[in-house]
Design goal:
With 356 residues, the protein is mainly beta. The protein has three helices and 18 strands.
Amino acid sequence: MKKVVFITIGILTTLPIWAQEASKIKISGYLEAYYGYDFSKPAMHNRPGFVYSHNRHNEVTLNLGFIKATYEERNIRANMAFMAGTYPNVNLATEPGVLKNVFEANAGIKLSKKENIWLDAGIFASHIGFESAISKDCWALTRNIASENTPYYESGTRLSYSSADNRLTAVLLFLNGWQRIARPDGNNKPAGGLQVLYKPNDKITFNYSNYIGTEGVDAVFLKRFYHNFYVITRLNEKFGLTAGFDYATQQKAKGRAAKSQILSPVLITQVKLASRWAITTRIEYYKDKDGVFISTATANGFETIGYSLNVDYMPVSNAVIRLEGKCYNSKDNIFTNGINLVNNNKAITASIAISF
């Protein structure tokens, strides 16, 4: 009797390890081009010195563009993004070498099997404020004064906890300094911060963030303590309100109790007229008499009120076209208009931003 032998040929459907890992990497990007016109017509094409984003006058240019890779597994994660634009040119001017073009670079490990507790290290977006460098994610086209003069980014380690329902987030940070990737020469004092974010429901968000650190070299360092409070609420599908308040102190001289004070309230409203249109208004006040963040060498220091109005059109969900008018009025003549010093500054800005 003949024996019949059956041979089965199959195709291995399991991907090799390298392909499995590659499938866990997500690539995304962002690009925002803008045109700004300052009615003071600055000869050097730069807006006032306390403006660090959308700071160029009378030219079409790139504010921020980046490519980002994200890797995430159950217990580990990593992010890497490289950028270009006028934003990094100004904000990262003091950083060495290629660090000027790093938007984000961090890696993390989950510390608990049951709780959402992570330890991350590297370069992150700042934990201070409700506005970021990504304009498309902000209600207003340009940043408020407090956002411009607090860190956009930070580097160090971050220990974070999120509740299972994502209502509560708490973050503890050890940092290299105030908006620094590389630690400043001569400064070896620790810096850090705390963030607590609470969402009691889907319509409202409460946040408190702070920063504690020292400015200057160790021999003459000044202690800085910064507080940031804000609440964001969506009263309904069409109307939103953001209210923020920043307060900071910094020693006037090492070893002395006297302190400089900085305060800045801001109020922003957003009205969605239709599915693709929105209008945002903003009023803000910033007082820095001793020039800790914004130096003027005038009697009252920097004491300025700002107003802005922008109209947004969103042709698709991942793109927005915006037009904003902004006005600053200061107590002293701190702005330049031609050869004259004046107490006000006006500008318009238009932009198109796309995320992918």
